[in-house]
Design goal:
Radius of gyration: 22 Å
Structural class: alpha/beta
Strand content: 15-25%
Largest sheet: 5 strands, parallel
Distance between the termini: 46 Å
Strand order of the largest sheet: 2-1-6-5-7
Length: about 250
């Protein structure tokens, strides 16, 4: 799978993609990441990419001309008014639809994704309306720019590319995957006792059916405690109660 990132800060990405799973995926040829400098599609000596918004207001907006020119160069068919469904353009902005695991799977079906990193107060709306296939936000908050969001989107989607994870089941048994709306269950490793806190005995029992039931109940309990909104509850419920054991097999058992 190929990711294109259109940004005014290409040097930002010298770090995020050089470590861990994404780096290994690139080395193995499973994922390709191409960083494009938006200023390469400007024509004035100052390489201007922004201007003031019509109607007044604070801040600056990314101009449409360099963004359209860049996308129509990278995805040449766009210059002829054609769209390849396997090559998708995504605008990263605070106004976009929420990026979640379902969105990652949907976007992961593409062969190439071109991520436009917004900056300043945003991007000329004509980019969202006439150029991008979708507008995406990674959360209900405002970032200084789309670069962090692009790194998040690429990391999440890259994990879904076949062959990227060493264990193919890893992506299946994570939060939001096997059972949407339920977090992953609590996980423990050695030592079995640390500072007087013991791993739940059921996990040491070797009884796979009991372990399966414990994990299911513990996942539901953790979801109710930390993310009740996933189950239709109030997202503020459970705040400050993270230590409360709320599943059948108490941590002390």
């Amino acid at each position: 799978m190929t990711f294109h990132v259109l940004t005014i800060f290409p040097e930002f990405f010298q770090g995020p993609f050089e470590h861990g799973i994404v780096a290994r995926a690139r080395e193995a040829g499973k994922v390709e990441i191409r960083i494009h400098n938006l200023r390469d599609w400007t024509h004035d000596r100052h390489k201007t990419v922004d201007d003031r918004p019509f109607g007044g207001g604070e801040g600056m907006l990314l101009k449409p001309e360099p963004v359209f020119a860049a996308v129509e160069t990278i995805f040449a068919e766009r210059a002829h008014g054609e769209r390849d469904p396997r090559r998708r353009v995504i605008l990263l902005s605070a106004q976009g639809r929420k990026f979640d695991q379902a969105a990652a799977r949907r976007l992961g079906d593409a062969a190439e994704l071109l991520l436009i990193c917004g900056r300043y107060e945003g991007v000329d709306e004509r980019v969202a309306e006439y150029l991008a296939d979708d507008e995406v936000a990674i959360g209900d908050y405002v970032l200084s720019g789309g670069e962090l969001a692009a790194a998040v989107v690429i990391d999440v989607i890259a994990r879904l590319v076949p062959g990227v994870l060493g264990n193919a089941d890893s992506a299946v048994f994570e939060s939001f995957e096997r059972n949407p709306g339920v977090l992953d269950c609590p996980q423990y490793t050695r030592p079995a006792e640390f500072r007087g806190w013991r791993v739940p005995e059921v996990l040491l029992s070797g009884n796979h059916e009991q372990i399966r039931r414990w994990r299911q109940e513990a996942a539901l309990g953790k979801t109710a405690r930390l993310r009740p909104d996933l189950r239709g509850g109030n997202p503020e419920e459970g705040a400050g109660e993270a230590a409360a054991p709320d599943f059948k097999y108490d941590r002390k058992n």
